[in-house]
Every structure is written in C-alpha cells, then in structure tokens.
Target: Porphobilinogen deaminase
Amino acid sequence: MTLSPDRPLRIGTRGSPLALAQAYETRDRLMAAHDLPETAFAIVPIRTTGDRVIDRPLKEIGGKGLFTREIEQQLLTGGIDIAVHSMKDMPSEQPAGLVLDTYLPREDPRDAFVTLAGSAFDDLPQGSVVGTSSLRRRAQVLYKRPDLTVVEFRGNVQTRLKKLEDGVAGATFLACAGLSRLGMGDEVPRQPVPVRSMLPAVAQGAIGIERRIGDEDIDRLLAAIHHEETGLLLAAERAFLATLDGSCETPIAGLAEFEDGALRLTGEVLRPDGSEAIGETQVAPVEDGAELGRAMALRLLEQAGPGFFDWRT
Ligand SMILES: NCc1[nH]cc(CCC(=O)O)c1CC(=O)O
Model:
C-alpha cells in the first residue's frame, strides 16, 4: 500500500485530549514500524454522541457504543481507514464488516484515587463525597464504604479537578493509563489503587485499532504493531464481558494477568447500589483465556441470579 501526503492513511478518533494522544501514539508506532513520514497519516477527530451530550449521566443516554457509533459509521463508509479506541469503552461486539483485534501494549490498568491533597482511598474521612460517572466505581466504592456519598461527575481531567477545587466532591477516580498518556502522571495528586482493592474495568489501559474486514493492505500495516500479550489478556477479559452481556448500566470489573507462564483472570459483578459483590479468580493456559472468561461469567451469573443488576428502589 502506498501512503503519501496526497493519500494519507486516515486515522479516526474522538477529539478529546486523551483520544488524540492515543491516535498519535498509534500513528507514531506505524511510522516507526514501516519507516513512514508523519505526512503519510492524517488524524481525523470525530464527535460522538457521548462527546455531544455532556449534561446527562451516561447511563441515561443509554445504549452501547455511545463513544463509538459515529466513528464506526465513518469506517464503514470509507471516511476513515482505521479507528483508534480506548478498549474499555468498546462494546464486546463490533458491527458487521468491522474487526477489532489489533492492540497496543497495555498501560497500567489500575484506577487512581485523586484528591487535592493526594491522600489515599483508605484515609478518606467518614461521610466524604466521591465524584464518578462510572457505575463500576460507584458500586465498588459503596460496597467498600457504605458511609460515602457518590455524586455524578463527568468531563475531562481538567473539569474533574476543577470540580474538586469547587468542593463538588472531595475525591474522584481516574484511570492511571489516561493520566500517563496525557503526560499528567505527576501533575495530578493521585494514589494508584491496588487491583486487589479496586478491580479495574475490563480492558482498562488498552488501546485497540479497528479496521474494515477484507482490506489486506491495512491488515498488514496493523499486524506490525499488534501486541500479542495484550491480545491474550483482552481475549479473556472481553469474553468475560461479552458473556455477561454488560453495558454501561452494569457494574462489571475484570482483569487478566500473566502469572508463572499462565493466565490468571479475576472477575467481579456488583449490584448497582454496592450492596453486594460476587467475584472469583481462576488460572488457565494463556491460549484458553476466552474459554476461561466465558466460564467465569456463566458461574457469576448463576450465583447472582435474576435481577442482580436491577436498581433497587
Ligand atoms: N470512560 C472514559 C475513559 N475511557 C478510557 C479511559 C482511561 C484510559 C484507559 O482506560 O485506557 C477513560 C477515562 C477514565 O476512566 O479515567
């Protein structure tokens, strides 16, 4: 495939600072892998429903693919050639005609606990207010600390820090990966939360690149930057998520890690109000991740029983 300034490879992405950083990282890896100049690529920011509607909780806007639909549409109609995504925002299945199996090396998957003073989650005073728009984080926080109040908190890193300064909440959570990709790892007063204390979202910290099925030039281009290990981990986590049929309305957490040459998966489901959590850890051969994830999801669903994810009134 010949890429030139006249016919650059168009990389679709959301327009947020984090999304753009991920698109640039992808471009830089493609430049290095294929010895191509910057002018062989064009970054194309695309506004999604999730970006447009910022005044309502995500779960109210509803539906899967809030941050991806418009981008996938452009990919299907040829407006862009590839799309770069935060894998944790990706539905477990892609629209017909698209495939998402190229991953960059995963960043730190942990959540970071953020306060103006940089204090640790365990030191948060009784009755404090925590801001988050993530159902998973809300349920996990309330499960561990029923004394806390959780308020809705949307917006980018700067907006959230401003809200802390304005006293809207005393603390919030952000993904470590996002902060370091933004180069803000040291600017933001944060404490990484151990994964055993707060299990991350499925695929947190991983970047995925989506393409059209059957475009062999692009297949070859992307194969050179695919990170196999991340692929093995995400196979387990994404099978777990797919079997649970999760959406942004279901508090689900999952993390796969390598351990002594095997793959260890921890999965967790919570009631939205944080009154109950069910989880387990299992080990399997690295190539059996998808089966491990599926089986774990089925066991957790059975233990949870019907109505587990319903909001209690
Ligand atoms: N839902 C928004 C979103 N999607 C991916 C990340 C962080 C980066 C990542 O997990 O790869 C974030 C922000 C956050 O949770 O702090």
Notes: Residues 86, 88-89, 174-175, 177-178, 204-205 surround PBG (CB under 6 Å).
